[in-house]
Design brief:
7 helices, 174 residues, mainly alpha, 78% helix
């Protein structure tokens, strides 16, 4: 393999890191954990990845990737097909719209922005799932999921930051 081919492989790898990290986090949320009811309250780690990558590298998180990740997530968890994809696309649109405000600010602002996105996304999911199932879903699990998602965000964001530094590089000027 010559240097040009190797450079193309490295560039391809860098371009797929955000998508692979999102898929990895989807799979990670589905691991069996010996805690009762944990699947019902597991943190929304794929939403963390979408938020992170759209703020720092939106060029590597196209809508088709987010849509596909949402459909994959729906298939794994048995949610109404397309519900998570819709939530992810709406979150992407909101974060992309607020990117200039979020990028380059302190971590506290970045974290607060995620908290808002997570709360709106999970509340929207709760409302849409209740409408689709024609029954009011239990709110206690959704509330616990919101809390766990916001509290665990710094750890996931740190891991994504490390992968960006080592593998992807800084954002393209936009």
């Amino acid at each position: 393999m010559n240097a040009a081919s190797f450079g193309l492989v490295i560039e391809l790898f860098r371009r797929v890191v955000p998508g692979l990290s999102t898929i990895l986090l989807i799979l990670l949320t589905q691991l069996p954990v010996p805690i009762p009811f944990f699947p019902n309250v597991a943190p929304a780690m794929p939403l963390m990845a979408i938020y992170y990558w759209v703020v720092f590298r939106p060029d590597l998180m196209p809508l088709i990737l987010i849509f596909a990740a949402g459909l994959f997530h729906d298939a794994l968890i048995g949610a109404p097909f397309g519900l998570t994809a819709l939530i992810y696309i709406l979150a992407h649109a909101f974060v992309l719209n607020q990117r200039r405000f979020l990028a380059g600010k302190s971590f506290w602002v970045f974290w607060a922005g995620f908290a808002i996105v997570a709360l709106v996304a999970m509340f929207s999911t709760y409302v849409m799932a209740s409408i689709l199932r024609e029954a009011i879903m239990p709110a206690d699990a959704v509330f616990m999921c919101m809390v766990l998602t916001v509290v665990t965000f710094p750890v996931v964001a740190w891991a994504l930051l490390q992968s960006q530094r080592w593998l992807v590089g800084s954002a393209q000027p936009s």
